[in-house]
Amino acid sequence: xxRHVVGRVGELPxxxxxxxxxxxxxxxxxNVNGRFHALKxxxxxxxxxxxxxxxxxxxxxxxxGEYVWDREGEILRCPWHGWEFDIxxxxxxxxxxxxxxxxxxxxxxxxxxxxxEERVETYPVSVEDGLVVVxx
Length: 136
Prior knowledge:
Elements: E1 17-22, E2 25-32, E3 35-40, E4 54-60, E5 68-77, E6 84-86, E7 103-104, E8 125-128, E9 131-134
Antiparallel strand pairs: 1-2, 2-3, 3-7, 4-5, 5-6, 8-9
Keywords: 2Fe-2S, Iron, Iron-sulfur, Metal-binding
InterPro entries: Rieske_2Fe-2S (IPR017941), Rieske_2Fe-2S_sf (IPR036922)
GO molecular function: 2 iron, 2 sulfur cluster binding; metal ion binding; monooxygenase activity; oxidoreductase activity, acting on paired donors, with incorporation or reduction of molecular oxygen
């Protein structure tokens, strides 16, 4: 499995997403409460661009007649037919044991791994007998 740098942490604030291309695959990268998750950008139902769907929460079990809204920002809804998937696991909300979308491992690494475009070249400096010396 190869490593692929797909952006900087600051480019994707919590609640945001980005669709990237990696080795010919379209992948949705999501920041859910400061943690990054990646899903295949294809709904297992009819191959819709899943990661372009709305990101919501869901109702959770509660007392009879009571609705509890929870998991805001963790549920992805397919833009074509409304199938819902857990962004954290890729599992279907309505049938988690039989339907899921492929998920990928995501890590956050130091910015130096992504490139040097925000850096300027530096040179060693020393002080010798009261003189500042730049070494090129």
